[in-house]
Amino acid sequence: MAAAALIIGCVITADALTGDEVVLIGLMTSATLLCGLAASPAATRAVGIVAVSVAALSFVWNDNFGTWTYWVPLTVVSLSAGFGWLMAVYRQRLAGADRELQAIVGAVEVAIMVRDGTGALIYSNQAAADLLRLPDPEAVMAATSLELMDRFEVYTEDGTPIALDDLPGTRVLRGHARRAGVGTTRRNARFAFHSGNGVVVGIRWPAE
After folding, report:
1. What is the 3-state secondary structure (H, E, C) of 64-110?
2. 32 near 47, Cβ under 8 Å?
């Protein structure tokens, strides 16, 4: 918010000093777009109103009302103000949805770990940390796949040990058939891996 106000103030000063020789009002778009990326919708709307108002009154010191040097910057600033506000609104909605999803997933007793298409662990809930006997999800995400695998002895249904490279999630990342896998660990837990949209999800839950 302070940076946006500074930008608007600098643009007004520079534009007033140069007069109609150079039209700088359009540079205020950086203030509205900056707010759209970092500020709340209310703050972005306030900055947008100020920017549009300044652009609308710029003819007072530029003496260019009715010319393209007045209407084009005014139009550009108005559009950027609206676009910046929409950015802030949708960014807030996405942040809220992400918090709700993390709260829901973090509260369930099912252990959930999410990996991206490169195999990097991008999410773990507390249930997964408890299953792995680690203090919190951050500790799970800090561990390597081998370190996590060493905490279990994983077997197929006929008792054959399963290596890390043979886990369904690893096979999916290598481009093998996308289907769920089921196994048993020495701690009597089952696991399944599903993939979709480039994300592999490992779900562990107590056996019935």
Report:
1. CCCCHHHHHHHHHHHHHHHHHHHHHHHHHHHHHHHHHHHHHHHHCCC
2. yes
User: What whole-number distance in Å separates Cα of residue 77 and Cα of residue 97?
Assistant: 30
Compute CA distances 58 → 8, 61, 63, 83, 112, whole Å: 12, 6, 8, 21, 56
Token code pair at residue 61? 């010191």
Q: Which residue has the higher pLDDT, 6 or 202?
A: 6
pLDDT at 201 over 50: no
Contact 132/148 with Cβ under 8 angstroms? yes
Write out the DSSP string of 186-201.
Answer: TT-EEEEEEEETTEEE
Contact of 9 with 16, CB cutoff 8 Å: no
How far is it, in rounded angstroms, from Cα 63 to Cα 19? 8
Cα–Cα distance, 187 to 26 (Å, whole number): 64
Q: For residues 157-184, b (16+ Cβ closer than 10 Å) or e, as one string?
A: eeeeebeeeebbbbbbbeeeeeeebebb
Weakest-pLDDT range from 15-19, 34-38, 74-78, 132-136? 15-19
